[in-house]
Write a structure and sequence with these properties.
Number of helices: 2
CATH topology of the largest domain: Jelly Rolls
Order of helices and strands: HEEEHEEEEEEEEEEEEEEEE
Radius of gyration: 28 Å
CATH architecture of the largest domain: Sandwich
Shape: elongated
Oligomer: single chain
């Protein structure tokens, strides 16, 4: 929508005073070629500017003018699981499941284990797994990454879960690390595990007392977008003018779940 309304001359010109006013305004940068636009919300990925001053070859500049519009953000996801996870055999592996989403933008869990991205790029994936061993022998567990159903080369880590202290105090180990993974929009990555003993589990521990302690999730996984990593399509970008025609222009932007993301635009030509 139009924002400024400075004097315009009619097609026949104007008085010397009117011409002087228009020229002085132009020298001072005051012209009728700006407006404000609020990005469409509710997950929209584009917003249309309707302005009769826009032409096919107009330059359209954008500037964030609200705090929410000027705040930088990138895709992220934080997930956890509140169940015990076990294996029925030492000769097969299984994907680690996640049943709770704490925070997410552009990253989500599909089919309980598939961490799926909306944008192409390089991602940093971190995990923390609570392994428990009730046996009086130590046992090994392997954890690795699987992309779109295929194991990622050289992504495995091996951990040794210590023996129990006694019949009621089991051996515990937190397995944690981070890993960079390259993903295209729609790709997914899973955490996969195997163990040398079916006695070993990934265990959720309820809240405890004396002293009071919060519950321990069996698995915590976070993922953050790092960069576009050379991709040129389906990437996470700042809002930009993706197309325009007479009287309108389309702003493409990441899925907008916020409100009051206001931009000022200027039209030249």
């Amino acid at each position: 929508m139009s924002r400024d309304m400075y004097r315009k001359l009619n097609w026949q010109g104007g008085t010397p005073r009117e011409v002087s006013e228009v020229v002085n305004n132009l020298v001072e940068g005051k012209s009728n070629n700006t407006g404000d636009i609020t990005l469409a919300a509710a997950g929209a990925v584009s917003t249309t500017i309707f302005d009769e001053r826009i032409g096919y070859n107009s330059y359209i500049g954008l500037q964030a003018i609200s705090q929410t519009a000027s705040t930088e953000y990138f895709p992220y996801g934080s997930f956890q699981d509140s169940t015990d996870q076990s294996l029925s055999t030492t000769t097969a592996s299984a994907a680690i499941t996640l049943n709770t989403t704490d925070f997410a933008l552009g990253i989500n869990v599909v089919s309980n284990s598939r961490i799926t991205v909306d944008y192409s790029g390089l991602y940093n994936l971190q995990f923390s797994l609570q392994f428990v061993n009730p046996d009086n022998q130590q046992h090994d567990v392997d954890v690795w990454f699987r992309k779109n159903g295929v194991d990622i080369d050289n992504s495995n880590s091996e951990f040794t879960v210590p023996v129990r202290k006694n019949a009621s105090i089991y051996g515990h180990l937190i397995a944690a690390l981070n890993y960079f993974v390259d993903l295209e929009a729609g790709d997914y990555v899973e955490l996969v595990w195997a163990t040398s003993s079916t006695l070993v589990t990934i265990e959720q521990i309820p809240a405890q007392t004396t002293p009071t302690r919060p519950a321990t999730p069996s698995a915590i996984v976070t993922m953050q977008y790092v960069s576009s990593n050379g991709y040129t399509t389906d990437i996470f970008t700042e809002p930009y003018i993706s197309s325009q025609s007479k009287g309108q222009a389309v702003i493409s932007h990441p899925a907008n779940t916020g409100t009051n993301k206001v931009y000022r635009y200027i039209i030249v030509g």
